[in-house]
Amino acid sequence: MKVHASTVNRTDTATLRAHPFFARAMTGLIRPKMSILGMDFSGEIDLLGDDVSAFDVGDRVFGISPDTFGAHAEYLCIPAGGAIAHIPGSLPYHEAVVGEGAWYANGTTQFLSKGKRCLIYGASGAIGTAAVQLAKARGAQVVAVVGTRHIDLPVALGADRVVNYETEDFRALGEKFDLVFDAVGKTSFFECRHLLAENGIFSATDLGPGWSNIFLGMFYGAMGSRRVRIPFPENAPGFILQLADLMSKGKFQGVFDRRYPLDKTADAFRYVEKGQKTGIVVLDVC
């Protein structure tokens, strides 16, 4: 596949920097095992392997490469049965790189159903904006927590209510939720547990203070409960097909911060590492 666009995201920066440190056991003790990062991709099929029938040369496709990365390059080899789908309609390549954040968000929002209530803290990043849309697609009621400069964004994505954490303490809402999802890793189960309904789930994209989310997840898991979770996504190929369907129906769209050319990849990494991005940072490869 000829790569037209990719992204630089928290997964890329964490792999580069080996965060948390024990990730070195998988990503490389001294330097990253993968010399080319990049999970998200969109591009054009350039060459087909034997017996590939689902795609044709010239097809416009998007998806993720969660195991080998490699999308920060001009060409990428993807299994025909991997996490790849046709780009819906005439969507530009740089607006089709939406898979990584949505895949992680789906690891938590998959537990929602019609009528359930969820609170999403950090609903302005790639994962948070995806979580709002995926939760609404499942029929859930969404309360989004963001800062002042993002106050209108969750509403545009379908959130039922927005809380500005700079002027209001979301922890004092006095309401119960079936899911509290910390999409930026800046709160904890202990701060939010009083917001959880019976059988409610707290999920976070980071380890939490003192790695508490890991230990609590193991503790509740041993008790047969999903009370605390770190969203480990599954079935990437199936999810990308579902995402393509939502995109074609107008139920999901990417939220984009800025774009960098391929030769400015290092600058893109530096920007993402500041932790202040809104939605997705795109890398224009071709």
From TrEMBL:
GO molecular function: oxidoreductase activity
Name recorded for this polypeptide: NADPH:quinone reductase
Domain Enoyl reductase (ER) positions: 11-283
The organism of origin for this protein: Lutimaribacter saemankumensis
Cited InterPro entries: ADH-like_N, ER, GroES-like_sf, NAD(P)-bd_dom_sf, YIM1/Zinc_Alcohol_DH_Fams
Pfam families with a match to the protein in the record: ADH_N, ADH_zinc_N_2
SMART domains (alphabetical): PKS_ER
PANTHER family, per the entry: ALCOHOL DEHYDROGENASE RELATED, ZINC-BINDING OXIDOREDUCTASE
